[in-house]
Write a structure and sequence with these properties.
Strand 8, helix 10 and strand 9 (about 335-345) form a beta-alpha-beta unit. This protein has helices at about 5-15, 60-70, 100-115, 140-160, 175-180, 185-195, 210-215, 245-250, 260-270, 315-330, 360-370, and strands at about 45-50, 80-85, 95, 120-125, 165-170, 200-205, 230, 275-280, 335-345. It is α/β, with parallel strands linked by helices. Helix 4 (about 140-160) packs parallel to helix 6 (about 185-195) and helix 10 runs parallel beside helix 11 (about 360-370).
């Protein structure tokens, strides 16, 4: 499912315009020991947020200020950051790290640890022709896996050196994940990661809206080697621009496509006996956000066309968050969320994007992060 096109394009431009100035960053010389003080009995295991490098790159003063603001919030126990990889097109067989990210990533990880919080490190593959990485079709899959594995292992070593608690081996590579012919390659890659990195390993799967897409997730042997199954939970909910709380509750069990997402996620857990995390989820404060949460267009929804107003709607985003927590806190296979996102800058008063900083939805998230699950 395509999502975030304007956002991804902006990020690529931002990274190209603001290359990493790692020479200015001095790493923190401090031994880190995991702090479990903020883990209460009955709280979600992952009370996370995605610290995303937009609108500013990670190495700017704006990003540092945003991170310090974030670290003051005790309800968050995990901060997710991303390392960037790049390839020329969907058909390219070569993946490379984008620039020298070592110093800035190490600095961020150490600063987060110093604050007593944990770190999730996840890849973000940028495709320079602005296509969506879920649709990768490399001309030579063997070469693609070799180059991707080399890049991934480099950052797995960085994660190990910096005692990162959670490491993701992939991010929404749907075409590469669901092709059963690639099982051997993913199994080998996970084995190689675990030889280097001794924390917990996950992957981020894309959301789905067809039964066949979900069925394919039940056929992948390499899921058995992961510690958690991560999902980008941007599932379409209702077909209403102004849904009630009851409408949203029902939609998780019978979506606008007629899918019972709660049942299917439970089946995913039962099939592999791996806890589920929502590695990414966000609800924009825009009218109709529940219909297509994945949609970053100025007006939502895209399908059917003509319904979107583009109006700011904090109430709908808050209600979506409230219902999500109420729905999944009762599921013992569900271990929490990395909420998208905490931006690397201050949001404008009229912002209707995914950033949660200083928005009403933040209060709802923090309330649920600080209360025990049902």
């Amino acid at each position: 499912m395509k999502k975030f096109w304007p956002l991804i394009f902006f990020i690529i431009l931002g990274i190209l315009i603001l290359p990493l100035k790692t020479s200015k960053v001095e790493p923190i010389d401090e031994t880190y020991e995991s702090n479990e003080a903020n883990t209460g009995i009955g709280l979600l295991e992952f009370r996370g947020v995605d610290f995303y490098s937009s609108p500013n790159s990670y190495d700017t003063k704006f990003a540092f200020e945003a991170l310090e603001n974030l670290l003051k919030i005790p309800e968050f126990n995990y901060i997710q950051i991303r390392f960037f990889l790049i390839q020329d097109s969907l058909k390219s067989s070569e993946v490379k790290p984008y620039g020298n990210q070592d110093h800035i990533l190490s600095f961020l990880i150490q600063r987060i640890h110093q604050s007593g919080k944990k770190v999730s490190l996840m890849p973000q593959l940028l495709v320079t022709d602005k296509e969506y990485e879920a649709n990768l079709k490399p001309q030579n899959k063997a070469l693609w896996f070799a180059s991707y594995s080399e890049a991934l292992l480099y950052f797995a070593q960085l994660a190990e050196t910096n005692k990162v608690e959670l490491f993701s081996i992939g991010n929404e590579f749907t075409s590469m994940f669901l092709d059963g012919a690639n099982d051997t390659e993913w199994n080998k890659m996970i084995d190689s990661v675990k030889e280097i990195y001794h924390g917990r390993v996950t992957v981020k799967l894309n959301c789905w809206y067809k039964q066949t897409q979900f069925d394919n997730l039940l056929k992948l042997s390499w899921f058995q080697k992961l510690d958690y199954l991560g999902v980008a939970a941007y599932f379409d909910l209702t077909d209403k621009m102004d849904p009630t709380e009851e409408d949203l509750k029902k939609a998780w069990f019978n979506s606008r496509q007629g899918i019972n997402f709660v049942k299917e996620l439970a089946t995913l857990f039962e099939s592999y006996q791996k806890p589920i995390i929502f590695s990414e989820i966000g609800y924009r404060n825009v009218d109709g956000c529940n219909i297509e949460p994945w949609n970053a267009d100025s007006k939502v929804p895209r399908f059917p066309s003509g319904l979107g107003t583009g109006k700011k709607d904090d109430a709908e985003s808050v209600l979506c968050a409230k219902v999500l927590f109420e729905t999944f806190k009762t599921q013992n296979w569900w271990q929490g969320i990395f909420w998208f996102c905490w931006p690397t800058g201050i949001l404008s008063e009229n912002d209707t994007g995914y950033g949660i900083r200083d928005k009403p939805i933040l209060k709802e998230i923090l309330k649920n992060y600080s209360t025990e699950r049902n």
